[in-house]
Amino acid sequence: MSEMVGKKLSPRRAVVDIAACVACGTCEDVCPRGAVTIYQGQYAKVQEERCVGCGKCAQECPASLIKVEVRA
Ligand code: SF4
Ligand code: SF4
Prior knowledge:
Layout: E1 12-16, H1 26-30, E2 36-39, E3 43-46, H2 56-60, E4 66-70
Antiparallel strand pairs: 1-4, 2-3
Bound molecules: iron/sulfur cluster (2 copies).
């Protein structure tokens, strides 16, 4: 059954304060879904369709720049 909801977006997602991000890569390393990439070496970018809102990246960001929010 879970296969049937595979394309549905999760209720929550990670949002990065990209202006303050120093592109350390920690969030990319800890994301269990491979949802984060460091865009052009500048900031962390979350792939909406991959993120399940688990909050792991938010817990590990050394600068606390990630928040898990309810999708609009
Ligand atoms: S909330 Fe979870 S799935 Fe989403 S980017 Fe962060 S670690 Fe990855
Ligand atoms: S862990 Fe924080 S500072 Fe490091 S790349 Fe991710 S959002 Fe940016």
